[in-house]
Amino acid sequence: MIGLPRTAFSQITLSLILLLFINLLIFIFFLRWFVVDPGATQFADMLNNQLQLLAIKFRDFQAFEAQAWLQKNLPQLGYEIRQKTTNFTELPPLRFYQIMQETLENHYSDALTIRLSNEATHSKLWFQLAWMKNYWIGIPFHTYLQNIYGMISLILTLTTLVSMLMAYCITAYLLRPLKELGRLAQDLSKMDRDLPTLQHKGPKEIQQVVSLIEQSAHQMRKLIQDRELLMAGVSHDLRTPLARLRIAVEWMPEESLRYDMVKDIEEMDAIIEDFLEYARAGQTEPEQLIDLPPFIDSLIVDFHRQNFKIHLEENAIIQLKCRPVAMKRLLTNLLHNAFKHGAKPITLHSYQEDGQLQVWVKDRGQGIDNQNLRQLFDPFSQGNKARTKGGSGLGLAIAERIAHTHHATLTLKNRVNGGVKVGIIFPNDGQKKQ
Question: Which of 12, 153, 166, 286 has the most CB atoms at less than 10 Å from its CB?
């Protein structure tokens, strides 16, 4: 769904926060109707009773008389008489005060004024009624209900922080086996490494998934190793009779027939090599950090020695972490395809764009049908008849496998004015500027 976070941690955290928010709304609703409103009404009735009792005694008193009587008879209650309204404030716009004021006003037909003062040790509610002779009566205000909204905000903040912490711990616990599965998948294609041993932790369902995938990975690694062993055996068994045929053919007197047979033997040998290279894809070669400019320059020199001219548009000054022999094989396949199936000029172009290294091989041939572009990466698949000139159909398949072992993407596109361009797009973490 659009807009939702993608990571498990963020989804679990969002779910917990949403659940806590809904619970808080329900809590506030019940708190309002069953605690705040009844509490404010009950508190207002209590204040009314106190004011009614004071009115009986103070109705004819002046301010100093009322203050003296309170200090003498009710000193422990903290009542106070004032004529000045300094430090008095309006009642806050909270429901508790609104309910309290409405309830008190319903008890009096004459004017009632209520103010609030917040002092060092406590708060006081100040009342002025018509029977008071220009003074205010202050009643200490000790109730947690006046701070209920601050308490709710504090609870919401604390529960949100706790929920995020718990979401992180739960997600880390649940996803640890899945992260190990990711390492297993990365090492599966690297034949020079042993597969990591996974820890079977977490919920029972995840442990079962980890166990099944681990078994499948070991079976897949064994199948890959068996395939390489089979291909190596086939190559050895086929190349031995091919070598004998080559020697026998060299003694044939007919030159034209000898030439054709030697050419067929070389083509068979090249096909066998393609099969082997497709199986290996350079996976056993260790990675190295190479300087790209001299690497590409040496490749172009090798082609020039074979009378294949390559135009170098741009050569990015960068260091690339790769398997050099496999990378050379990849670029060689792309260049041979360009010379074999395309048309001159053949161009090589390496540059950086959006932090990614891109290497493109371009030709000016007749192009390929757009619906066949993706199909060309399949083994034994070939393009348009206009561009097909024999071969095993493994060139691009081998190139794509080598690119994938470098976590790169192989892209094939038609050019605007005719021809094809094939690009290798490397990830950001596989390169280093010089």
Answer: 12
**Residue 251 φ then ψ, to 5°:** -90, 0
pTM over 0.85: no
Length of the chain, in residues? 434
Residue found by looking up tokens 């990365």 in the block: 186
The CATH 1.10.287.130 domain(s) of the chain lie at 189-280
Query: pLDDT by residue for the chain (434 residues), tens digit each?
Result: 556 666 666 777 777 778 777 877 887 788 778 877 888 898 899 999 988 888 888 888 888 888 899 888 888 888 889 988 888 889 888 888 889 899 998 888 778 899 988 876 678 899 998 888 889 999 887 655 556 666 667 777 787 788 778 777 777 777 777 777 766 666 665 555 566 666 666 667 667 777 777 777 777 767 766 666 666 666 666 767 777 777 777 777 777 777 778 777 777 777 676 666 666 655 567 888 999 999 999 999 999 998 999 999 888 889 998 888 888 888 988 998 899 888 889 999 999 988 889 999 999 988 888 777 777 777 656 555 444 555 556 678 878 888 888 889 999 999 888 899 999 999 876 555 55
What 3-state class would DSSP assign to 201?
A: coil
The CATH fold assigned to 285-433 is Heat Shock Protein 90 (3.30.565)
Is residue 257 exposed (0-12), middle (13-18) or buried (19+ Cβ within 10 Å)? exposed
189-280 classified as CATH 1.10.287.130: yes
Alpha-carbon span 69 to 58, nearest angstrom? 9
